[in-house]
Specification:
This protein folds into two domains: 11-76, Orthogonal Bundle (Chemotaxis Receptor Methyltransferase Cher, domain 1), CATH 1.10.155.10; 88-162 and 195-278, Vaccinia Virus protein VP39 (Rossmann fold), CATH 3.40.50. The chain is globular, with a radius of gyration of 21 Å. The termini are far apart. Helix 5 crosses helix 6 (122-135). Helix content is 41%, strand content 19%. The longest helix is centred in the middle third of the chain and has 17 residues, at 88-104. It is built from ten helices and ten strands.
Length: 280
Amino acid sequence: MAHGREFSFSDRDFNNIRQLVSRHTGISLSEAKRDMVYSRLARRLRRLELDNFKQYCQLLENEGADEELGHFTNAVTTNLTSFFREAHHFDYLGKKLLPELLKIRADERRLRIWCAGCSTGEEAYSVAITLQENLSHMMSGWDIKILATDLDTNVLDTARRGVYAEDRLKNVNDRRQRRWFKRGRKENAGLMQVKSELQKMIIFKQLNLMHDWPMKGLFDAIFCRNVIIYFDKPTQSVLMGRYAELMADHGRLFLGHSETLYRVTDCFKLMGQTVYEKTV
């Protein structure tokens, strides 16, 4: 046992884990993630009654390890989100992009938005609220859907349920809380349930961005915020090319505040604060 840890965790163990993560998710783990990786995967070793990380890596390499690979992926991915996080994106969507889309899509009356890396669902529901508040006068005549995907099956279960602790709604004003959420009572006190009209707009699906994508249609907007920071530059470049192929000519790409496409791709041009337009 090294450094007082329950399981030894050598450089070789960590590098093996990093290679497995890269192979299965495309995520590039830095040295700074070593303690996080240990603490999260140590739980799996205990659950499986394994003695060391070498055994765990061997298990993951075995054929038929799909179920454990799912647990492994869920453990090493990071899910940090909140309602209306980086609020300027939702202002841009509601005040700038949607008015443009109403004109461009006037004939087919169809809108598609993809939240890639949706985590526990707050982003997708924030998009749905923005659409409802800006398009409520004509929603019935339009075909509007939000696809929300994530690698982690656990967070997708939370997203589908749409039930959150009240303190998770600190970025949602009182008016919106009253309009779009149901407050829990008795044994559900302290919880908030997203209203069904928002849930009906969203399709939650498990998707590995490094694998094949089943989507065929074009998207008017793609939210991929705080996702590409986990990939190396070559992987980012490939990912942006794939996004461009699935985005309409007028579409917008939304990235996280610490992300940039500088020296990554020429498929998109900067339009605003981490908002990009597809280059035709």
